[in-house]
UniProtKB/TrEMBL annotation:
Pfam families: Acetyltransf_1 (PF00583). Keywords: Acyltransferase, Transferase. One of its GO terms (molecular function) is acyltransferase activity, transferring groups other than amino-acyl groups. This is GNAT family N-acetyltransferase. It comes from Flagellimonas pelagia.
Length: 172
């Protein structure tokens, strides 16, 4: 299994919207109110919104490939594009998703290692992310990679106020 990643470009927008929707639906649809969930999907993964994010110099989308097959993606935020902390020494992982048929192959672990290398190459001192408090599988995954809870913040799916745990990995 040869894994690679590359930064997304304008020509990737349609694929990015599709994989973003597909992976988010698979991960969270069953645990949310259908009306709130559909409202969130329409806004968060609207083509125009994602095009703006793709053009933001402080947001980085990367596709992940196994051999030449798209298996997942991640989104990183820097500086003022971070959703919460906005620390210039930090890198936020806003999204990290692996398509269902490719889960269980350690692709997520590989992605975290690639993100750590990217952060170190940018001289960042820590990586942080938000993970839904009711997602124990993801929480355990990040904790296995050295992330520790340091705070919480609200996250809305439609009108449903949820709580994300903020996890941090110090690099230096």
């Amino acid at each position: 299994m040869a894994l690679t990643h590359r930064k997304c470009t304008d020509t990737d927008l349609d694929t990015l919207v599709n994989i973003s929707r597909e992976t988010f639906i698979a991960a969270f649809e069953k645990d949310n109110d259908p009306k709130d969930f559909q409202e969130y999907l329409k806004k968060a993964f609207h083509q125009d919104k994602m095009a703006l994010e793709l053009h933001d110099a402080n947001s980085l989308f990367h596709f992940v490939f196994e051999d030449e097959v798209l298996v997942g993606y991640f989104k990183l935020n820097l500086n003022d594009s971070q959703t919460d902390i906005k620390d210039p020494n930090a890198l936020e992982i806003e999204r990290i998703y692996v398509l269902g048929p490719h889960q269980g192959k350690q692709i997520g672990a590989w992605m975290v290692q690639q993100i750590i290398q990217l952060a170190e190459g940018m001289d960042k001192t820590f990586i942080w992310l938000g993970v839904w408090e009711h997602n124990p599988k993801a929480i355990k995954f990040y904790q296995r990679h050295g992330f520790e809870k340091f705070a919480e913040h609200p996250y809305y799916i439609g009108t449903d106020k949820q709580t994300d745990w903020l996890l941090r990995l110090d690099l230096q």
